[in-house]
Amino acid sequence: MEVREYQSSDEEGWLRCRVLSFLQTAYYDNVLQEKETYENPAIELVAVKDDQLVGLIDVEYEKTERTLCSRGNGLGGMIWHLAVHPDFRRNGIGNKLLAEAEKLAKQKGLNRLEAWTRDDDWVNSWYEKNNFRRVDSYLHVYMDGQNELKNTITSEKPSLYPVQVFAHYTGKETKKIKANYKRVHECICYEKEL
């Protein structure tokens, strides 16, 4: 297996790998049709085995302190995408991608990485095993159908009726929110000092 820089010809494999890896997570419906591009510089790596893209990591990094990362001093990098194709999990691919991204981040003068993920136990355990520490969280709330939207979301536009809503909840009444809506995920921030 080779870890190398992403090339534009990798886009289809990148998208397939990301979609397949996210299907078994709380991000199962977060589908992209093209690879994200970044406003700031980014470390974009892929893992390739037998001409198949089997893993990826994208880290956009700051040129100015605290423009991407939410805490800390110095320059940080935000892990936007980290994925391993499900047929190739448990082979250390994620660890190899992270190690190479960390090496490049240090060379670029970054002193920390930040990542946000949802409440999949196995994903959170992976971050913790890789020396990330939990530093923050809030809720992702999906509202679907009239019962969940009633008394929460209305439209001021005539003849426009909300059917689904995705929202961030940053308040203190998390138990109440979780009780009132069927699909609620905790979105957790992890940070790793380099």
From TrEMBL:
Keywords, ordered alphabetically: Acyltransferase, Transferase
Q: Which GO terms describe its molecular function?
A: acyltransferase activity, transferring groups other than amino-acyl groups
Q: Where is the N-acetyltransferase domain?
A: 1-154
The source's superkingdom equals Bacteria
The protein's organism comes out as Ornithinibacillus caprae
Which protein are we looking at? GNAT family N-acetyltransferase
| PROSITE patterns assigned | GNAT
Pfam families (alphabetical) = Acetyltransf_1 (PF00583)
